[in-house]
Amino acid sequence: MKKHIFAMVLLMPIISFASEQEASESNGDKALKVYDSTKFCYYADKEFSEGARHYIGDVVQRCTRREDNTLYWKTL
């Protein structure tokens, strides 16, 4: 019985280390997207440049620059 307990105590750090490595690798697959509103307008996680038109049903929007140099969707 003591041999089994001793083996479990020795294996616990190895098992916990393996589970931590697996978790960090799965998080590393997802790249963080950086949004820069001075360069693009965004819709549905896609980038649109200044002057681009976007249609939602009967509504038309244009990617327009504000006075503070940021881009936004202006409804026409």
How would you portray this structure in words?
With 76 residues, this protein is of the alpha+beta class. It has one domain (2-75). It has one helix and five strands; from the N terminus they run αβββββ. The protein has one helix at 2-28; strands at residues 41-43, 46-48, 53-56, 59-65, 71-75. The strands form two sheets. The chain has a three-stranded antiparallel β-sheet, with no helix packed on it. Strands 1-2 form a two-stranded antiparallel ribbon. The protein is flat. It starts with a helix and ends with a strand. Residues 9-26 have low confidence and may be disordered.
Short description:
This protein has 76 residues and is α+β, with helices and mostly antiparallel strands. The chain has one domain (2-75). It is built from one helix and five strands.
Any key phrases for this structure?
two-stranded antiparallel sheet; single chain; 36% helix; 1 helix; alpha+beta; 76 residues; three-stranded antiparallel sheet
Secondary structure elements and their pairing?
Layout: H1 2-28, E1 41-43, E2 46-48, E3 53-56, E4 59-65, E5 71-75
Antiparallel strand pairs: 1-2, 3-4, 4-5
For the secondary structure, the number of strands is 5
How far is it from the N-terminal to the C-terminal residue, by CA? 79 Å
Report the structural category: alpha+beta
Number of helices: 1
User: Helical amount among residues, as a percent range?
Assistant: 25-40%
Q: Specify the overall morphology.
A: flat
The largest beta-sheet arranges its strands as 3-4-5
User: What's the overall average pLDDT, rounded?
Assistant: 76
Low-pLDDT segments, ≥5 res: 9-26
The assembly state of the depicted protein chains is: single chain
What is Rg? 26 Å
Largest sheet: 3 strands, antiparallel
| Domain unit count | 1
In N-to-C order, the SSE pattern is: HEEEEE
Report the sheet-strand fraction. Answer: 25-35%
